[in-house]
Amino acid sequence: MPRKNTLDDMLIVLMLLLFTFHVCAHAYHAFSGVPLDGRVPWTILIPVYAGFAFLNAVVMLGWTRALTFLGITAVISYLFEFVGERTGLIFGEYYYTDVLGAKLGPVPLIIPLAYFMLVLPAYVMTNLIVDRRPTAPPRRGFRLPIVALLSAIIMTGWDLAYDPLMADGFKAWIWVDGGPFFGIPLRNFAGWVLTSFTILVTYGWVEARTELAPRSSYRPWVPLLAVLSYAALGVGDTFAGYPAGTRVLSPFLIGIPVLASLLCLYPSQPLYPSKPAVASPAEAELQR
Question: Can you give the pLDDT at residue 137?
Answer without folding.
Answer: 85
